[in-house]
Amino acid sequence: MNILGIETSCDETSSALLCNGEVCSSIISSQLCHTSFGGVVPELASREHERLIVSIVDAALTEANITKNELDAIAATAGPGLIGAVMVGLSFAQGLAYALDLPFVPVNHIEAHIFSPFISEEASRRTPEGSFVSLTVSGGHTLLSVVEPDLSYTVVGRTLDDAAGEAFDKTGKMLGLPYPAGPIIDKLAEEGDPSFHLFPRALTSQSQSSKSWQGNFDFSFSGLKTSVLTWLQKQTPPFIELHKGDIAASIQSAIVGVLVEKSMAVVRSRGIRALSIAGGVSANSALRRAMQQACDREGVRLYLPKPLYSTDNAAMIASLAHLKLSRGMRAEYLYNIAPYASFAAASRRD
Ligand code: KG4
Ligand code: ZN
Question: Which of 33, 40, 142, 220 has the greatest CB tally within 10 Å of its CB?
Answer without folding.
Answer: 142
